[in-house]
Amino acid sequence: MDFAGPPTLADIERLAADAFATIPAVLAERVDGVAIRVVDFPDEQTMRDMGLESGFDLLGLYHGVSLDQKSVSATPEDVDLIFLYRRPLLDYWCETGEDLVHLVRHVLVHEIGHHFGLSDEDMEALEAEAAAEG
Fold first, then answer.
1. Which class for 88: exposed (0-12), middle (13-18), buried (19 or more C-beta within 10 A)?
2. Which of 77, 102, 105, 109 is 20 to 30 Å from 60 by CA-CA measure?
3. Domain-embedded: residue 96
4. Which helix (H) or strand (E) holds 39?
5. What is the pLDDT of residues 82-121, one digit of tens each?
6. pLDDT top residue among 55 and 129
7. Inter-axis angle of helices 100-115 and 86-96, nearest 10
8. What is the pLDDT of residues 6-41, one digit of tens each?
9. Does the residue 1 lie in any domain?
10. Host domain of residue 114
11. CATH code, domain with 25
C-alpha cells in the first residue's frame, strides 16, 4: 500500500480490516463483537494504569474480559476493544523499516491473543514455535 504522506487513522483502519480478514475463520468467529479502534495514542488513564513513560511505548491494547475469564451468565458491562495506536506504530515502522502491513497484522493478532486469554509469554512461545517449524 502506497501512502501520499504519513498513513492516516483511516489508512491504519483499512490495514487492520485487511489484516482481520486474513485471520483463520475459527479464530475470527470467536472475536465476534470485539471492536477495533485506531487512535493516535493511548489515553492518559491507560498510560497511568500501565505505567508508561511515553505514549510511544504501546503499539496496541486489548481492553475487555478475555474469553477464559468470561462467564456465560454474566452481562457484559462494556464492549471488548482492541486499540491500535497509529503514532507509535508509525514510529516503530520508521525506526525498524518493517513492512507496515505486517506490523499492523502482528499487533492485531497479538491483541486478539489477549482476547483469548493468552499472555505475552504464551504468544512469544507460539511465535517461536511457528518460526522453528516454518
1. buried
2. 77
3. yes
4. strand 35-39
5. 999 999 999 999 999 999 999 999 999 888 887 777 777 8
6. 55
7. 130
8. 999 999 999 999 998 887 776 777 777 788 999 999
9. no
10. 9-69+77-133
11. 3.30.2010.20
